Amino acid sequence: MGSSPSAATSIRSQRSRSEDGHAVVPVRRITGPRQSACCAVRLRLGMLTGHSGLTIVKTGLIADPVFKEHDPGPGHPESPGRYDAALRGAINAVGKENLLPIEPREATEDEIALCHTREYIGIVKEDVRDSVRCLRTGDTDVCDRSYHVALKAAGGLLEAVDNILAGKARNAFCPVRPPGHHACADGGMGFCIFNNAAIAARYAQHRYGLERVLIADWDVHHGNGTQDIFYEDPSVFYFSTHQWPIYPGTGRAHERGSGPGKGTTLNCPVAAGSGRTEIVGAFRTLLVPAMRRFRPDFVVISAGFDSECGDYLGGLALTPADFTELTAIVMRIAAEHARGRLVSTLEGGYRLDGLAECAGAHAAALVEPP
Question: Of 152, 156, 223, 242, which is most buried with the most CB atoms under 10 A?
Fold first, then answer.
């Protein structure tokens, strides 16, 4: 059906350019009666609006069955099925067509050494080679594929960072395993081998010259490893809500960093049974104003879904809707200060149905405009 001249849509082709002047894609600017409807649909699919036009940029998804090859053994809560659950939840909630698949790579030893000592990297290689059941540094069970998979998990986040900084993805969800936030510079523990979130933060700084990074962690357990790595570093702000007292026993409110890093650690320990009021409230009333002062250039989420009501290893009471809201809060921080640049990595979450539902809510929020 043809359009009358009065209802005709004016379209002109032009080339969008990023802020650094590089061409992105040819775009079609639409004006007239169809403009608002078109923009609404396109924004829902992850299109970013710029002064020079509209460019399709989707949420990235790190996915590879290699993440199931790290097997701590029968009955272990950090099971290979966690990867399937998180991936299924994200795809079912969003649809494959609205996600950009990103293939992970192995992180190099130099990249792992951005946050871990060379001695510890050698220990992991030796322990896996010697077929030990558990890392000598702590309570992390391993198998003969664990070192390789841990490199892929960290490298997956680095690929996500690369895609975001290149403008190929607007943000990214990385349902990788093993998780990472308990891994300290010199030792793994708590199901973790390498600290994926910490490595991604430091990589963004070293590879791209970004100055300040926020790591926001809503896992039921405190990310002692992440805190430890950046405790004296003013360039990385670590924010955590977590149940206390519970494993690993760190994360008291008075732990605020030390030396030049004083004030860039913010812990919000909450009692068992806490949920939306305490945790979403902390993100709103404590994290948001802190970030107006800190002004991060990049944002990392340690997305632990063991803080959901009913998880086997925790006692908190968050719902999928709460994870939607937490995600939206952090996305608004990224939009306000970091040009929307955000990568999320899976930490905990051990009730598989709950993990799938919560990861789906998180992924659905990531594809929405902040």
Answer: 223
CB atoms within 10 A of CB 13: 9
pLDDT at residue 370, rounded to an integer: 74
**Which one, of 177, 174, 226, lies nearest residue 343 by Cα?**
174
The H or E element containing residue 82 is helix 81-94
Residue 229 in contact with residue 323, Cβ under 8 Å? no
Are the beta carbons of 213 and 201 closer than 8 angstroms?
Answer: yes
Separation in Å, CA 33 to CA 14, 38, 45, 97: 20, 10, 20, 27
Asked about 206 being catalytic, the answer comes back as no
Q: 170: which 2 tokens?
A: 């607007």
pLDDT score of 43 more than 60: no
Q: What is the identity of the amino acid at 322? A: D
Q: pLDDT for 70-107, tens place per residue?
A: 999 999 999 999 999 999 999 999 999 999 999 999 99
Whether 301 contacts 344, CB under 8 Å: yes
Q: Residue 73: which H helix or E strand, with range?
A: none
Q: Which two tokens stand for residue 111?
A: 């990249």
Predicted TM-score (pTM) of this structure? 0.86
pLDDT over 70 (residue 173):
yes
CA–CA gap between residue 256 and residue 105 (Å, rounded): 34
Q: Select which of 70, 181, 182, 362 is catalytic.
A: 182
Say whether 275 sits in a helix, a strand or coil. Answer: coil
25's CB contacts (< 8 A; 6+ apart) are: 15, 16, 55, 56
> Where would I find the H helices in 141-234?
146-165, 196-208, 224-230
The residues with which 99 forms a beta bridge, in sequence order, are 59
Closest CA to 361 of 328, 313, 329: 328
**Nearest C-alpha neighbor of 111 from the set 156, 146, 174, 175:** 156
DSSP 46: T
